Here is the input.
Amino acid sequence: MQTFSLAVLAACVSSALAATVYQGFNYGSTFTNGSAVTQADFEALFTTARNLVGTSGWTSARLYTMVQGQTTNTPIEAIPAAIDTHTTLLLGIWCSAGQDAFNNELAALNATIATYGSNLTDIVIGLSVGSEDLYRNSPIGIENLSGPGAQPTDLVDYINQVKAVIANSPIAHVPIGHVDTWTAWVNGTNAAVIDAIDFLGIDEYPYFQSTEANPVSAGYDLFFAAYNATADVSKGKPIWVTETGWPVSGNASNLGIPSIPNAQTYWDQVGCAIFGVLNTFWYTLQDSDPATPSPSFGIIGSKLTTTPLFNLTCPANVTKIGPSSPSSSNSSTSSGGASSSSSGTSKSGVSKISVSAGLLSAIVVAASLVVYQ
Here is the structure.
């Protein structure tokens, strides 16, 4: 049974007491065939997510880049699509291609602010500087041929450059974070990045933890062991779940078997425990090439439809984490865009501290005033 450390509860409560808890999916700028995702495409995707059968509140989106596909530094067309569909955005800036490419990201960010101005105020909920750059730069990422990453000192510099760009703009108030794997966050050499940001985005995939026993029945414990470990080093800063999911098809990853029933189990046990409590961006609504992904994480198939591949209605008896601690074990970590990474870092050594029922009750009351109002 996984219990929660005081650091985890603090991070959960910090997130739960926010004015709004966001739920959405991850969206790239290009399809697998190389064609750009256009404004019309983004609008269709955002509208589909909003109207998925069995859900409510899936009105947010996480982006990886500010640059429109097939352009140098034109703002991504997800911005006007989000304005038109009332979709909130976790903006993303790509950091693993060096300063010259980062300058193009900054140019697109500047142009976005100049073009859309106050229209951004209500739709931009945060800005992530980088995505799994520390993981790609780690021995595990290098072994998995994940591509170039970035050093923590470079990321801190990039973060400071972004802060300078948005200062005195309509999005000056938004929190700035970085997205990475839990194995990167618990590596002490990366602590300077934690110091520089407002929130930690965490990508967790038990399916990819191939050096551990990782059947879907262990997904809950593996997910929260990684979450606990991250919270223990977060210095009390909020944790956003920026990627997680279970594939519906593809090859096995040790004991992790892709299938629609297993994706359903993971959604019910892990997803439904965090929806409405933690800002969550699921991987994914639809694969960028639904016809030939391996593995496929899309909860809808090759055609846009509001009917998912499995039931997205959460069980009535699901135990929410955050305000309350899970009472029993139910039957990550990296993806790098979800198909290439494999963590395998052991979860041993994470200390847990039991919390009194009185404290939990107080947290429940406080959090429910905002989260469930």
User: Anything to note?
Assistant: The two ends are 30 Å apart (CA to CA). Strands lie at 23-27, 58-63, 88-93, 124-131, 176-181, 199-203, 239-243, 280-282.
